[in-house]
Specification:
The chain has two domains: about 15-60; about 90-250, Ribonuclease H-like superfamily/Ribonuclease H (Nucleotidyltransferase, domain 5), CATH 3.30.420. The protein contains ten helices and five strands. The protein has helices at about 5, 15-30, 35-45, 50-60, 130-140, 155-160, 160-170, 185-195, 205-225, 235-245; strands at about 90-100, 105-110, 120-125, 150, 170-175. The chain has a five-stranded mixed β-sheet, with helices on both faces. Strand 1 and strand 2 form a beta hairpin. Helix 2 packs across helix 3. The radius of gyration is 23 Å and the shape is elongated.
Length: about 260
């Protein structure tokens, strides 16, 4: 045995702060495994060896549990407080439909929960995380950033592209529990109206046709369709009234 090895004495290191940061990251991203948690820690400045982080990950029991039909959530869900001003909280979700030639298309719907305005309907045959970020960035240029976005656990929303954008812009992503769309009730309600009043009433021959038709519906929904939850005002009328009350224009309500 080498003399240097024989004389060496291991020195314990204090990993309390690393454990705290790892537990906090795991609470915020409950469906993230150890590799993505390491990526989050790296982004926040932690440079500890990945093997050390994995050891602490196992010791803390942070492994992602398999989903079963009936399960108890690992953390208590906090009820959503109704927003009180424009751009405080948005919600978004996907809707699927098909063209006349049976090709599938997807629609990304983005809604302001306070005014119930439909901010964007993005239509294409494929909408990966990068396209979601592009749609949000376009809205940021004209309307600003929200404080929070409510969304489900789809792969387009849980990927690194949207997570990096939200981190950069200071937007909080609020993921609902899997299998509980009622926790994103505002966008689910809009999806039902869009399906009933637009998608089921039209036969799209191309993606361009679907984009044009849904753009017309979005204008009608915001500008012409009264909303019972807004005292039968249209979302645009309600938003304009809220902006006047707050002495802000809709473009000026920006959290990010």
């Amino acid at each position: 045995m080498a003399r240097s090895s024989y004389a060496y004495r291991a020195q314990a290191t204090d990993d309390g702060s690393l454990r705290t940061a790892l537990r906090q990251a795991a609470r915020q991203r409950r469906r993230y495994g150890v590799r993505r948690l390491i990526w989050l820690l790296r982004r926040d400045g932690w440079r500890d060896n990945h093997k050390r982080i994995e050891r602490i990950y196992r010791e803390e029991g942070l492994q992602v549990r398999r989903r079963i039909r009936k399960r108890v959530t690992r953390a208590a869900r906090q009820p959503l407080v109704r927003p009180t001003q424009l751009n405080e909280r948005w919600s978004m979700d996907f809707v699927a439909d098909s063209l006349a030639d049976k090709r599938r298309i997807r629609l990304l719907n983005i809604l302001d929960e306070y005014s119930r305005e439909c901010l964007q309907i993005e239509v294409d045959t494929s909408l990966p995380g990068a396209r979601v970020v592009r749609a949000l960035e376009q809205l940021r240029q004209t309307r600003g950033c929200p404080r929070q976005i409510v969304l489900d656990n789809g792969p387009e929303f849980t990927g690194q592209a949207l997570d990096q954008w939200a981190y950069t812009r200071g937007v909080e992503l609020m993921f609902i529990e899997p299998g509980k769309p009622q926790q994103n009730a505002f966008i689910e309600s809009f999806n039902g109206r869009l399906r009933d009043e637009c998608l089921n009433e039209h036969w799209f021959v191309s993606v361009a046709d679907a984009r044009q038709t849904t753009a017309q519906y979005r204008w009608m929904y915001n500008e012409d369709r009264p909303h019972s939850g807004l005292d039968n005002q249209t979302p645009s009328e309600f938003a304009a009234q809220a902006a006047r009350t707050a002495s802000l224009s809709p473009q000026g309500c920006c959290w990010g």
